[in-house]
Design goal:
By secondary structure, this protein is of the alpha+beta class. It contains three helices and 15 strands.
Length: 279
């Protein structure tokens, strides 16, 4: 079933189970998102979307550093390639999002355990640098920097719903929808008839990694690992990356990048927040 058909069916089910007033409000929690899959052939990638490799920066843009240590490019998110399914309020000149993080591969390369260290604890540990695809060029880090293997990425559109874990515990965090809507959403998940879940017409909308799914995703809603608090509606999920042997963090965990919607509209990527969750 195509994502647009899933959205239509979701609205129908919400209305049928929750009524004409509450149902459409619950269906409106759905967001357009993407699952991300590394591909061997660059021809199968979504534009210039990739993990690792050189950055794509506008000429004159400085490579981000922290106390003299060049950050490592984690991913280039090609938002232009995600249209028309992408519904986030992106500003002009942000067709490419370069996502960097602070890793220590180069400084600790002689120690296998230590070389897998990474930090996502403070804003200086990551950076998101936008670039205009029309003028962006490949850029390498300064001396001492690390370049991860370049892997092209295919982005497939999905309908994403928030993980309801913990949503009833802190309804005040939900700024656009009342606690009533979130409670109705949780009731809906309990009421869905057989055949609308993992293997049915709404397969995938619950936004949980399925067997064989790497768990990489962009936009939509992130997966709330281990009961991590559900993000508020006024924040936009940019990127969530699952465990991967090419990246230097815990052997089992996820990193999630989010930004306030107002900051995204204004192009203020200094307000990007990052959360790391380990198994």
């Amino acid at each position: 079933m195509l994502p647009d058909d899933i959205t239509t069916e979701l609205t129908r089910l919400c209305t049928a189970h929750l009524g004409a007033e509450t149902g459409p409000r619950v269906a409106a929690l759905a967001r357009n998102g993407f699952t991300l899959s590394p591909v061997d052939d660059g021809a199968g990638a979504s534009g210039r979307f990739r993990f690792g490799g050189p950055a794509l920066l506008e000429p004159g843009t400085p490579w981000p550093e922290f106390e003299g240590t060049p950050l490592t490019l984690l991913a280039v998110v090609d938002t232009d390639a995600l249209r028309p399914w992408l519904d986030a309020p992106l500003p002009a000149g942000a067709g490419l999002l370069n996502v960097f993080y602070l890793g220590y591969e180069s400084a600790l390369a002689d120690d296998v355990a230590a070389s897998r260290q990474a930090h996502f604890e403070a804003p200086m540990d990551w950076r998101v640098v936008p670039a205009d695809p029309a003028t962006a060029v490949e850029a390498a880090p300064p001396a001492g920097g690390v370049v991860l293997p370049a892997r092209p990425v295919r982005a497939d559109p999905v309908v994403a719903l928030p993980d309801s874990t913990g949503s009833h515990l802190a309804p005040a965090r939900h700024e656009e929808n009342t606690a009533e809507v979130w409670e109705a959403f949780e009731r809906l998940l309990d009421r869905l008839p057989d055949g609308t879940g993992k293997d049915g017409v709404l397969a995938g909308i619950r936004n949980l990694p399925e067997s064989g799914d790497d768990g990489h995703r962009a936009f939509g809603w992130p997966w709330a690992m281990q009961g991590m608090p559900v993000p508020v509606e006024t924040r936009v999920h940019l990127l969530q990356l699952d465990t991967d042997p090419a990246w230097t963090w815990a052997d089992c965990g996820m990193v999630t990048f989010e930004i306030p919607a107002d900051a995204l509209r204004a192009g203020d990527f200094s307000q990007v927040d990052c959360t790391m969750e380990s198994c």
